[in-house]
Design a protein that fits this description.
This protein is an alpha/beta fold and about 300 residues long. Helices cover about 30% and strands about 20% of the residues. The N and C termini lie close together (about 5 Å). About 40% of the residues are buried. Bound molecules: adenosine-5'-diphosphate and magnesium ion (MG). This is PstB1.
Length: about 300
């Protein structure tokens, strides 16, 4: 884990809202009078549900290798509308696995089985009648390493929309490419070279191109799996600002290994540990006043 022994006050949350006891030394997560939940108690601490969720996960288990290995253990968690929910925890704790259950990307892994119920706007996405192709447009995904298609910038954005039948002619496609690139904060940098290959852009631009491609097919939820870990600090800051904009229109679930990033961009944070969801709460609470010993140890750099 990164050597992060001091806590950083969430940039945006901190600016808007002072922690309950702002006189207390913010370098030490406070426990107040609450006793921390002991390490061996693996029941989720905190509010798992929200009113009117975009997605609702109930008792989700995930197994690999045809049942030999259990990677996710009875997780119940809602994804709210217009929220950024950050998923943190030590490497191998199941963050990516859980994220992939939200758009059935685990279906593509041989020997992987998902149990439980996951709904999008009330509809179980694991029902037999659900077609995963439109599902993955509704719940889009951005990966750690930017992966533009070996096509032009224009075609990278237009491709999915054409396949999904969202555009009928050149004018509509031009419009969609422009609005998607604008929303991804990339338009001004590429508008004069739309015919050039997407792979020729810088890493940060490629990641925004992948976000534009995701936006173009009209998602409700955007999943991001460590989307900045291959980017430099400036490109990272641009993506973080973009996430702040996108949350006005979408629900965003983001896996990050950077606690600073989680504190800057998310409203809620979920802490995972060895396949369990240990704690879920507002980002402010998780970082300033964790309730579980394991969360406390992780955010103070004692574990990982
Ligand atoms: N395709 C796979 N096949 C078998 N085991 C896997 C596979 N992907 C992940 N795992 C295992 O599942 C656990 C959770 O992994 P992962 O979700 O990638 O964790 P994280 O994203 O938190 O690092 C780990 O023990 C990992 O080795
Ligand atoms: Mg991962």
């Amino acid at each position: 884990m990164n050597n992060q022994s001091t806590m950083v006050l969430p940039r945006r949350l901190g600016a808007e809202k002072k922690p309950p006891d702002s006189k207390r030394d913010s370098a030490t997560p406070s426990r107040g009078n609450t006793r921390l939940v002991p390490k061996d108690d693996r029941r989720t601490v905190g509010q798992k549900t929200v009113d009117n969720p975009r997605m609702r996960c109930e008792h989700v288990n995930v197994y690999y290798n045809y049942g030999e290995k259990k990677a996710i253990n009875d997780i119940t968690l809602d994804i709210g509308r217009n929220e950024v929910i950050a998923m943190i925890g030590p490497s191998g704790c199941g963050k990516s696995t859980f994220l992939r259950t939200l758009n059935r990307m685990n279906d593509t892994i041989d020997g992987c089985r998902v149990e439980g119920r996951i709904t999008l706007d009330g509809k179980n996405i694991y029902d037999r009648d659900v077609d995963v192709v439109p599902l993955r447009a509704q719940v889009g995904m951005v990966f750690q390493k930017p992966n533009p298609f070996p096509k032009s910038i224009y075609d990278n954005v237009a491709y999915g929309a054409k396949i999904h039948g969202l555009v009928q002619n050149k004018t509509e496609t031009d419009e969609l490419v422009e609005t998607s690139l604008k929303r991804a904060g990339l338009w001004n940098e590429v508008k004069d070279r739309l015919e050039q290959p997407g792979t020729g852009l810088s890493g940060g631009q490629q990641q925004r191109l992948c976000i534009a491609r995701t936006i173009a097919v009209g998602p409700e939820v955007i999943l991001m799996d460590e989307p900045c870990s291959a980017l430099d600090p400036i490109a990272t800051a641009i993506i973080e600002d973009l996430i702040d904009e996108l949350v006005k229109d979408y629900s965003i679930a983001i896996v990050t290994h950077s606690m600073q990033q989680a504190s800057r961009i998310s409203q809620r944070t979920a802490y995972f540990h060895m396949g369990d969801l240990i704690e879920i709460g507002t980002t402010n609470q998780i970082f300033m006043n964790p309730l579980h010993q394991l969360t406390h140890d992780y955010i103070t750099g004692r574990f990982g």
